Amino acid sequence: AQTVTQSQPEMSVQEAETVTLSCTYDTSESDYYLFWYKQPPSRQMILVIRQEAYKQQNATENRFSVNFQKAAKSFSLKISDSQLGDAAMYFCALGGHQFYFGTGTSLTVIP
Amino acid sequence: DSGVTQTPKHLITATGQRVTLRCSPRSGDLSVYWYQQSLDQGLQFLIQYYNGEERAKGNILERFSAQQFPDLHSELNLSSLELGDSALYFCASSPAVVINYGYTFGSGTRLTVV
Known about the structure:
The structure holds 2 protein chains of 2 kinds. Chain A has no helices and 12 strands. Chain A is mainly beta. In chain A, strands 2, 5, 6, 10, 11 and 12 form a 6-stranded mixed β-sheet that branches. In chain A, strands 3-9-8-7 form a 4-stranded antiparallel β-sheet, with no helix packed on it. Chain A has a two-stranded antiparallel sheet with strand order 1-4. Chain B is mainly beta. Chain B is built from no helices and 11 strands. In chain B, the strands form 2 sheets. In chain B, strands 2, 4, 5, 6, 9, 10 and 11 form a 7-stranded mixed β-sheet that branches. In chain B, strands 1-3-8-7 form a 4-stranded antiparallel β-sheet, with no helix packed on it. In chain B, strand 7 (64-68) and strand 8 form a beta hairpin. The relative contact order of chain B is 0.34. Chains A and B meet through strand 5, strand 6 and strand 10 of A and strand 9 and strand 10 of B.
């Protein structure tokens, strides 16, 4: 069975600081993809970053980067230089033939 | 604008009623997915369609049904509504069956059952 676990229901970070959100997963598929989605108060789901499991290089998108540890089945999201607009619920997701979401981490950014 | 269009944006209805939520996928996307998100809850997968055919079913109640039409738009029908059905219903689309580029989400339909 495929599962995605986010063990941090809530996190907070000072503005301009760095925060890391954790995600672990389990899958029996050999070819899969990992994603982080952001859901701000508007409730719109926004794709933040994507990682192909067969690539060892960690994905980066501006201030967002991931630490992908395939053997450990870990996929954490690092947000650098945190901004007030980063405050949102963040969902980790596993994709392949189906899509599986974690339960989310609520990130608060403190001015 | 993500390219996935959901209508209506808001819906208020009474218990026992039936409603239809509509979704138009992003141009070129063949797969449509429906999710339910209750207040402060995660995303519950309901059902997936690919090019008009049902491909996967999640935790969808028997009171709920969906279909995808030849023009690829999809409708989610919710009947005998209960207070607990109040939620945000998302539609998402992707180009193919294998989800390698992620979903594109619509902005959701907020359903309130009173």
